[in-house]
Amino acid sequence: MAYPYQISNFEEYQQAYHQSVVDPEGFWANVADHFYWRRKWDKVLDWNFKEPDIKWFMGGKLNITENCLDRHLGTLGNTPAIIWEPNDPDERHRILTYRELYNKVCQFANVLKNNGVKKGDRICIYMGMIPELAIAVLACARVGAIHSVVFGGFSAQSIADRIQDAECNLVITCDGAFRGNKDIPLKAVIDDALMACPSVKKVIVCTRTRTPVSMLKGRDVWWEDEIKQVETMGNPPCTAEEMDAEDMLFILYTSGSTGKPKGVVHTCAGYMVYANYTFVNTFQYQPGEVYFCTADIGWITGHSYILYGPLSAGATTLMFEGVPTWPDAGRLWDITDKYRVNILYTAPTAIRSLMGFGLGPVNHKDLSSLKRLGSVGEPINEEAWHWFKDQIGKGKCPIADTWWQTETGGHMITPIAGITKEKPGFATLPLPGVQPILVDEKGEEITGNGVNGNLCIKFPWPGMLRTTYGDHERCRKTYFATYENLYFTGDGCMRDEDGYYRITGRVDDVLNVSGHRIGTAEVENAINMHAGVVESAVVGYPHEIKGQGIYAYVICDKPTNSKDAELTKKDIIQTVSRIIGPIAKPDKIQFVSGLPKTRSGKIMRRILRKIAEGELDSLGDTSTLLDPAVVEEIKQGKL
Ligand code: 6R9
Q1: What residue ranges of the chain are covered by domains with CATH 3.30.300.30?
Q2: pLDDT reading at 246 higher than 90
Q3: For the chain, how big is the Rg over CA atoms in Å?
């Protein structure tokens, strides 16, 4: 059997779950035994959730790329590691075998070294979905540099914030990126960002779109030229840097309930073991299968389930540059057919948007290779679940509705495909090693079934975050201080009569727009930067395709007539786009003269949420408001 720790029936799941609770260290040591270690660990786990201080596989030495690449060369050297499908279906696809990927990663790792990169350096990666992005990420890991990948949809300002926070000294980018019918000028965005980033000494630019770019003397170099230099050196091998189990592997920024995104830190060994374990189990991957995750590597899903999980398991992972709706809404089905995809992992927002095109783009596509499906990023509504099941899976493919977070590193609560009995809209049961608990506002455990509460985890798992970069106190406050001795997820959850978990959505001020996490405070800060805006309040409302849309209530310093109002709205949207990125643009803006506040000055978001949702008759108690009249005005002006 390829993966001795792969669960193959429900009884085994129950046994594994039981063992993971009574003897977590023994359980994870058994899994970790199947990886390549330069030196085995002395102790499996040391932890407390107070500080927090979490260490897995202490004293172990390894390099994750030796587990993703080197160890497969003997058996899988000629097996495709990455299949790359370009944005434009008429352009040639690329296939990199494990041997080719290994060679390219070593080559680029040497480029990094030639450019002075050392273990522990932080490197910002801002690229489109091309194989060179995977190569760049793995090359960083090979030399022990900490990568911080920033999604292509973020603005120069957002990139600058992230670069400054991590004090990156090198940036890897492209001239541009193709996405659908758009060319995104990545290098130009980086140039804007770097005006505020003195720590960055080098920029490596990979050619993709041939968009004209300015190359700054002494700072900017071309990827291709640097590769040539390594070739001139005779392509020496690149020995992987020996890393401690708890050395940082990467930083990934994510939104929380405060204005500033935080850099979630994952470390080498625990993350590797966890990404691999969950990939192999949730999707029941079998050697030789083609696996396709539609996420972007700029998000955690891409890190864990396009790159590290599949590659450490020797799987064939398909990487797609484009978007599901271009050139038409049949794009994902054509790709599935073309490469005989066996496992498809996507997001509810993509499913809902494709549903909107009807069955035309699906009919007559050969989807018979599909065996298992996955969903991630937000709650999946039943309609979308059934459409995915029936129209795409033709009723025969199990769906893994995987609940997890940037902070958890990998799947937490999810069906094991084909093994856990599924229920539409439910993430079902925790994976072995995961101990969920529901608590009430006071932190008291809510026991029994048929209950609702805030979702926490009471025991560490190897893939959990270790800190937030540069600010450990923030990590403690955000995740470990709300409830004593528990990791707080920020999600609400119900446990039904069968003990099945259903995630009901965030209970904090975080929105989930098309599966992207956006903090309301972040959007408010951006809106407030616009000249003329006095104050604003942002809430989410149900959106047919995006799951949640962004609704902004804005107070301006001058009353706006209707013609001005439309212009001002556009200006505000443009401002948010500039400051955070297009993904955070408000869907609706309502101008108001005041906001409902308590006597202590707190905005009553509950009321604003209800109004945005159109539930004008169930605003609840408004008696504690400073000025109840303002609610009437807002109701009248509701869009
Ligand atoms: C992997 C990822 C995390 C938040 C999480 C929750 C929501 C993710 C979900 C889900 C319901 C699922 N979420 N998966 N809600 N069902 N299957 O998305 O990470 O970007 O950090 O978002 O997304 O609210 O707390 P991230």
Answers
A1: 514-637
A2: yes
A3: 24
Angle, helices 98-114/223-232, rounded to nearest 10 degrees? 100
Give the pLDDT mean for 357-386: 97
pLDDT at position 1 is 65
Beta bridge partners of 10: none
Q: How far is the CA of 404 from the centre of ligand 1 (A)?
A: 5
Which numeric CATH code is attached to 514-637? 3.30.300.30
| Diameter of the chain measured on Cα atoms | 77
What is the pLDDT averaged over residues 374-379?
96
When pLDDT is averaged across residues 519-536 and rounded to a whole number, the result is 95
Give the mean pLDDT of 588-594: 95
Q: Find out whether the beta carbon of 404 lies less than 6 Å from any atom of ligand 1.
A: yes
Every domain of the chain with CATH number 3.40.50.12780 lies at 10-492
Q: Extract the tokens encoding 172.
A: 């890897």
By percentage, how much of the chain surpasses pLDDT 90? Answer: 92
Q: Give residue-wise pLDDT tens across range 249-273.
A: 999 999 988 878 999 999 999 999 9
Q: Tell me the residue ranges of DSSP E strands in 415-532.
A: 436-439, 451-457, 467-468, 487-495, 501-506, 510-513, 516-519
CB atoms within 10 A of CB 412: 28
Query: CA-to-CA distance for 275 and 250, rounded, in angstroms?
Result: 14
Q: What is the DSSP letter of 603?
A: B
Q: Is the CB of 428 inside a 6 Å radius of any atom of ligand 1?
A: no
The DSSP 8-state label assigned to residue 503 in this structure reads: E
Res. 625: pLDDT tops 90: no
Cβ of 503 below 6 Å from ligand 1: yes
CATH classification (class only), 10-492: alpha beta
Q: Print burial letters for 505-542: b (CB count within 10 Å at least 16), e (below 16).
A: bbbbbbbbbbbbbbbbbbbbbbbbebeebebbbbbbbe
Ligand 1 centroid from CA 431, angstroms = 16
The three-class DSSP label of residue 608 is helix
The least confident of 121-125, 504-508, 626-630 is 626-630
